[in-house]
Design brief:
Strand order of the largest sheet: 1-2
Membrane topology: Multi-pass membrane protein
Structural class: mainly alpha
GO molecular function, one term: L-amino acid transmembrane transporter activity
CATH superfamily: Amino acid/polyamine transporter I
Number of helices: 13
Radius of gyration: 23 Å
Organism: Clohesyomyces aquaticus
CATH class: Mainly Alpha
Number of strands: 2
CATH architecture: Up-down Bundle
Order of helices and strands: HHHHHHHHHEHHHHE
Distance between the termini: 70 Å
CATH topology: Amino acid/polyamine transporter I
Keywords: Membrane, Transmembrane, Transmembrane helix
Subcellular location: Membrane
Length: about 425
């Protein structure tokens, strides 16, 4: 009699399409290479060229372990939507796929706003902001149209270094001033320090969602795994990435808050005054462009794989291959530009991305993925049961952040329009440089 479990273990995951991903038990000793979305090839396009060091730098520019472990246990998963299909079926797959695209299109929009703000600052507002945004969108689309993460990986080194140095210059710059650049330059002023603040619900949720986005982009890590030479090195790359990110965020933010308080500008590169602002933007220009490029590349690669998966065109230099790829980058880039101009205040664009997209993708879904692979924990020892109920709590927090955060951000945008803080969609005014 045939052993059914062994028969399931031998099932080739590579035969599953995006709409047919199965939740089966596979032999942990078996090689996952045959199950990968992109195959190692010598007669086609070899996407799997990214080493773990370069992956860690890509992650530094994209910015988790639950998702990575789940993905490496289900190697047919190319994206967060494929994972959603494993735990929730086709309906959840399409919902998460739509949220994933929305998240990274909005992130691309924030990249366009950031790059346009830099060009505005460097040129002393020589032309209408909309034209700088259009130019920024064109640059980002062109860079994102490079097909392989391995090629973009070279850009990420330059991008990461440039932004890191730019931020460091601002951090040093704010400590040399007697008062913040955005604060009143004469007379008394309040830095606005609060150990425990008591904001309104709308202000609190908007601020929380803005902060949350800084480390919520872990769903963008997943397509990178599919292009790593050894996907098992994923955890190594993430640990390096997160150590650098968390240490930098903590030290830089504490120094800037100490010297600027509530007078930090949005984006924060303007917090040390006009001269340092120009220096920082000049140095960080490459990094701002690369950030938007990566966001757009991740979104385009998701749609590209969904369209061509299990087709010879996925890894062959055919007209269909190139036409599909360029269509993905150009259409999504155009959509990001439109959204960036429709919601021109940088912080609101970031907050909306956090609430409506990343709360479900980076809080709710990872909790669900963990529960799926650890279902037996609900009836084991006290520590495992604690983890079980803790992940249910994580899902509840994600739902609250999604609903409450979206409401808060929408109301904040409505108030900003009513108070004249936003000049209107496709306005020549630079609405990004506000303090909070």
């Amino acid at each position: 009699m045939i052993d059914e479990k062994k028969e399931i273990q031998a099932a080739p995951r590579a035969s599953y399409s995006a709409g047919e991903v199965e939740d089966a038990v596979f032999d942990p000793k078996a090689s996952n290479d045959d199950f990968e979305v992109f195959k190692k090839t010598t007669d086609g396009v070899d996407f799997r060229l990214v080493g773990w060091v370069r992956a860690s730098v890509i992650f530094l520019k994209d910015f988790a372990i639950v998702q990575g472990n789940f993905r490496n246990s289900h190697a047919h998963c190319h994206s967060i939507a494929d994972m959603a299909n494993v735990v929730g079926g086709p309906v959840l797959r399409e919902i998460c796929g739509a949220l994933f695209i929305a998240a990274y299109v909005l992130c691309t929009g924030s990249g366009i706003v950031g790059l346009a703000t830099a060009l505005n600052a460097l040129s002393d507002h020589a032309v209408c902001t909309v034209w700088w945004a259009f130019l920024s969108a064109c640059v980002i689309v062109a860079c994102a149209s490079v097909r392989k993460f391995q090629k973009i990986g070279w850009l990420t080194w330059a991008g990461f270094i440039s932004v890191y140095i730019a931020v460091f210059i601002v951090v040093v710059g704010v400590t040399t001033r007697d008062r913040p650049a955005a604060a009143p330059q004469e007379g008394p002023f309040d830095l606005g320090y609060h150990v425990i603040a008591y904001p309104t619900f709308i202000v609190g949720m908007t601020a929380s969602c803005t902060i949350f986005v800084s480390s919520a982009g872990t769903s963008a890590f997943l397509p990178v795994i599919s292009e790593m030479r050894n996907p098992k090195d994923y955890n190594k790359a993430v640990y390096v990435c997160m150590a650098i990110v968390q240490a930098s965020y903590l030290t830089f933010s504490l120094v800037v808050y100490k010297w600027c308080g509530k007078w930090v500008t949005n984006p924060s590169l303007g917090s040390a005054g006009p001269t340092v602002k120009k220096v920082a933007y000049g140095i960080g220009l490459i990094g701002l462009a690369v950030s938007g490029c990566l966001y757009l590349h991740v979104a385009a690669k998701y749609i590209f794989v969904r369209i061509l998966r299990n087709s010879r065109h996925l890894q062959q230099n055919t007209l269909v291959h190139w036409g599909t790829w360029f269509s993905c980058t150009i259409i999504l880039g155009a959509l990001a530009f439109i959204l960036a101009e429709a919601i021109p205040i940088f912080s609101y664009l970031i907050a909306l991305t956090g609430s409506i997209c990343f709360a479900p993708l980076a809080i709710c879904l990872p909790g669900w993925l963990w529960l799926h692979d650890h279902w037996a924990y609900r009836k084991r020892n006290a520590w495992q049961m604690f983890q079980w109920y803790g992940h249910w709590l994580l899902i509840a927090i994600g739902m609250f952040t999604c609903v409450g955060g979206t409401y808060g951000v929408v109301m904040a945008i409505k108030t900003a329009y009513a108070n004249g803080m936003i000049g209107g969609a496709f306005s020549c005014a630079d609405n990004s440089n506000t303090h909070g």
